[in-house]
Amino acid sequence: MIPALGLVAGIIAGLFLDVSVPLDLQPYVPIAIVAALDAVFGGIRAVMEGIFDDKVFVVSFIANVLIAALIVYLGDQLGVGAQLSTAVIVVLGIRIFTNAATIRRHIFRA
Amino acid sequence: MSLLNNVFANPLDPDYERVAATRRGADEDEAPSRKPRMSASLVLGMLALGLLLSVAIVQKEGTASVASAEREGLAERIRGQEQQTERLQDAVSSLQAEIAELEDRQLQSSARGQRLRESLQNLQGSAGTAAVAGPGASVVLDDAEHPEETEKPEYAVVLDVDLQRVVNGLWIAGAEAISINDQRVTSLSPIRMANNVINVNGRPLSPPYEVLAIGDSRTLASDFSEGPGGDYLRSAGKDGIRYTVRVEESVRLPAGSSMSISYATATGGVS
């Protein structure tokens, strides 16, 4: 419940603070979002299974975002940015879906 | 495939498991708590995710509106320039009318002036710098209704060549003055295609093209139809171009833009 409130608070803060992303970083924001989503779903699942750990969560969150952005950045430099972002999204997407399915099973027992 | 299987099998960061195992090992005597452990870091992570999300959305909206604003601004500038061109054209034509009026007034005073005025009007009529009216003929050309369905789609639309042939044919048939869609064709009028638009006197025209000619209304249309212009039109008609040639009792042709000749000087000879 409280994490969900955190999400809402984050969205509202983003809307009102009017943070502007530098133009050079803009292509990496969507990838960063997917990576962050993956870390968050992993964290929620860990909470459900009782093995949540602050340090692991923070490290995985930051590392996920940075590595995903780095991969896409490298891809851009090599001219295959679109393909590499597809790869990142596929892998993270699968993880998100599987974690979400596990969370669903924990919540609804189904 | 094994990579994908791996992703499917271990969606959770393995570190969670490892850290939990070491923790269980560390406080073995305590009962392992299965109670979900919430923490500020998860809330913070969610906060960061929400922030990222809304920033991305706001950014997207922002760039979209910037692009459309830029396009709008460009369109605005184009419209402004067009209006200015129109205003200037209006000013030119009103000044020309004023000049003509002043000339008239000056020349009307004497008999010699009267004669001069008549010959001047004649010359202006044939040079195309004065509006003229009289009997004549009209040729209306239009693209084929469905150019893409014809055999040769590139010939099923009216090209500059078609208009050039028609104008030539009308001159041959004895036309004294010609206009295309209210653009007077003078001795300095180019008829040319640019970007699929036909320009006459540098003004873009759109189909249908109405070519008006002044001449002997009894012979102009028939001479045109029997001459090279008519031949050309008939072959163009086979490609899908729609055209009509009509006798006109009275047509009015506008004045062309004033011709200022800067380099050519009259040498006085007639031949």
From TrEMBL, chain A:
Its main location: membrane. It holds the Pfam family DUF1290. Belongs to the sbp family. This is Small basic family protein. One of its GO terms (cellular component) is plasma membrane. It comes from the Bacteria. It is a multi-pass membrane protein. Keywords: Cell membrane, Membrane, Transmembrane, Transmembrane helix. Signal peptide: none annotated. It is found in: Cell membrane. It comes from Phytoactinopolyspora halotolerans. The chain crosses the membrane at residues 27-44, 56-74, 80-98.
